[in-house]
Each structure stands twice: as C-alpha cells, then as structure tokens.
Design a protein that fits this description.
- The chain has 242 residues and is mostly beta strands.
- It has one domain.
- The protein is built from one helix and 16 strands.
- The protein has a four-stranded mixed sheet, with no helix packed on it. A four-stranded antiparallel sheet has the order 3-2-5-6, with no helix packed on it. The chain has a four-stranded mixed sheet with strand order 12-9-15-16, with no helix packed on it.
- The chain is flat and about 50 Å long.
Length: 242
C-alpha cells in the first residue's frame, strides 16, 4: 500500500508546466476564482487511468466509484471545501486497500482526481489532483483546451493539428499543460512522440464556442502502445461556480 503521494499530488494550484501563466493567465484565474468568491461548495470527479485495473474509490468512507475501469470517469460530486480522506481498493475479491491519503479541496473549484501508476514505482498508484479554472472573459467563437499526459511509460508527447501547428509540446508523463485558446470548430489532431516524431494516435474533435476541455491521454506504453485520448467537458462549463 502506498501512503506517499510523491510528485503526483499537489495542493492546488497545480502548476508543473511553464505555460500555466501563459496565454490565458491560468494561475491568476485560479487565484481569483477561489479568493473573489465565498461560496462554500466545490466539485470533484475521479478518473481511473491505471491500465487493466478496476478500482473502488472511497472519499471520507463514502463510496464514490465502484468497479471504475481504466479510462472511466465518475460524475462530479458536490463537496464542501476542506480536507478529505481518500481510500482506493481493488475491485476484485478479496478487497485490498492499495492507496490511502488525504486531498485538499478549495472553494469554488472543480477538480479531476486522476488515479495513475506512480512513475517512481509502477507497483504503486498515486492521485493527481487537476483543478479547473473558469475563463469568464473568453468571447466569440473561441474554445479553451489543455492536455494531460497520463499514458504510463510514455515519452514526452506533442499534440499537433493537421496544418502542422503544435498545440502542446514536450508534455511529460503526469504533466498537465496550460490552457490555450483556439478558434472553435472541428480539428484533426495527431498525438506524436516528441523525440522520434512517431505518430501515436489520430483523432477528430469538435470544440464548441466558449467551452473548456481537458484532453487526457490514458493507457500504457510497452511492447504494444495502447493509448486513448479522452475528452470530457470540464465541469466549469456547466456547474454552478461563480
């Protein structure tokens, strides 16, 4: 059982990537979102990115996920801003506690808690808490996107459009990019290994105006590369935040 979060868990704001203070000024937006509002509510969902492992997740002894398979999300649950105890069990009988620690939730925020293999010890798992910041001033036909590399064993990855524009470059395993504003519409995207320029995955995605998206690369590198890109809407699009 792993009781150490290592570099996967960070008290918000999660800023492992230098562009977080870039195009859309993510850091200041997170600060404003939590300090300019006194709402005593936030939202949390769980994503399992551990390949071939189904999990049960308990938050403060309440089951939040049962038989959560690789690539699956829970719905957002409304939570109060405070510290929570999280316990993760393997789904198969006999139940075994495989992870236990605490997470901090700030007010007026949405989070995705990502369960991932620990990059320092593949036998262990860790939880990466990814906050979402709301861009209240994004106008016109623009969308906000970012990229998270959760494919265990993957090299640094790039995500490029079909015109050759590299939207995100050099994203290491367990890193999350900053938000980038792009014109809304249909994109043909390709996931590429940064060093070898080998194409890993191609996908088509339609970004709607005024919406926020996080693209999660999930799966595992090995003899066979099995990587999917999951693109749910961020909760800031529709949850009741200030």
């Amino acid at each position: 059982m792993n009781n150490a979060m290592g570099n996967f868990y960070n008290n918000y704001p999660y800023i492992p990537y230098p562009r977080f203070n870039g195009y859309m000024n993510y850091d200041s937006r997170v600060y404003g979102q939590t300090n300019n509002c006194y709402c005593e509510k936030s939202f949390l969902r769980i994503l399992n990115s551990c390949a071939d492992t189904a999990l049960d997740v308990h938050v403060n002894e309440i089951m939040m996920a049962e038989n959560l398979k690789e690539g699956e999300f829970t719905r957002y649950a409304q939570v109060s801003p405070k510290q929570y105890e999280i316990k993760i069990f393997n789904y198969d009988e006999p139940k075994e506690l495989i992870f236990e620690s605490s997470i901090d939730i700030s007010r007026n925020m949405t989070y995705t808690g990502v369960i991932s293999e620990d990059d320092s010890d593949p036998a262990d798992i860790s939880v990466l808490m990814i906050p979402e910041a709301k861009e209240n001033y994004m106008t016109g036909k623009m969308s906000s996107i970012r990229f998270a590399n959760l494919a265990f064993g993957a090299p640094d990855l790039e995500l490029a459009a079909d015109d050759g524009t590299v939207l995100f470059a050099g994203i290491k395993y367990s890193d999350v990019s900053g938000n980038v504003a792009v014109p809304s519409g249909l994109y043909n995207l390709t996931l590429i290994e940064k060093g070898s320029k080998k194409e890993v995955k191609a996908l088509n995605v339609d970004f709607a105006p005024g919406m926020h998206y996080t693209m999660f690369a999930s799966g595992k590198y090995g003899e066979d590369i099995n990587v999917d890109i999951i693109i749910p809407e961020d909760g800031v699009n529709y949850l009741g935040l200030c």
